[in-house]
Amino acid sequence: MTSPAYPDSVCDVVWEPHQFSWTQAGKSDRLTDLGAIAKAVDITLAASRGKIKDPTGGALHYYAHEQVKPYWSSHGYRLVVGEHTFVRLVGRSV
């Protein structure tokens, strides 16, 4: 899903300041769980190409609910998948 509020490439979004804690903490960006990564890429590509329904309902935001609670996390429709909560904001800009 694209949004005029964010950069045009996935890499630019990931490396935008304060988007992901691991990019700020000096942690390794080495991929280790290749099976999980392949599954995530397959689902993302299928949803972005309209081959499957977006399971998040159009969410542009998500967070690891056991680790952080962003100020915007209670505004909108939420879907919990494993350790993450996906949020489609309603009537708010972040």
Kindly summarize this structure in a few lines:
Helix content is 26%, strand content 15%. The chain is of the alpha+beta class. It has one domain.
Walk me through this protein's architecture.
With 94 residues, this protein is of the alpha+beta class. It contains 3 helices and 3 strands. A 3-stranded antiparallel β-sheet has the order 1-3-2, with no helix packed on it. The chain starts with 9 loop residues before the first helix and ends in a 6-residue tail after the last strand. The model has no long low-confidence stretch (mean pLDDT 83).
Helix content: 25-40%
Structural class: alpha+beta
Mean pLDDT metric: 83
Count of individual beta strands? 3
Number of helices: 3
Kindly provide the radius of gyration, computed on alpha-carbon positions and rounded to a whole number of angstroms.
14 Å
Order of the strands making up the biggest sheet: 1-3-2
Shape: globular
The percent range for strand residues is 5-15%
Model regions low in confidence, pLDDT < 50 over at least 5 residues: none
Strand/helix succession: HHHEEE
Ends apart, CA distance between termini: 16 Å
Number of domains: 1
Main sheet specs: 3 strands, antiparallel
Q: Main attributes?
A:
3 helices; alpha+beta; 15% strand; 94 residues; 26% helix; three-stranded antiparallel sheet; single chain; 3 strands
What is the topological layout?
Layout: H1 10-14, H2 21-24, H3 34-48, E1 61-64, E2 77-81, E3 84-88
Antiparallel strand pairs: 1-3, 2-3
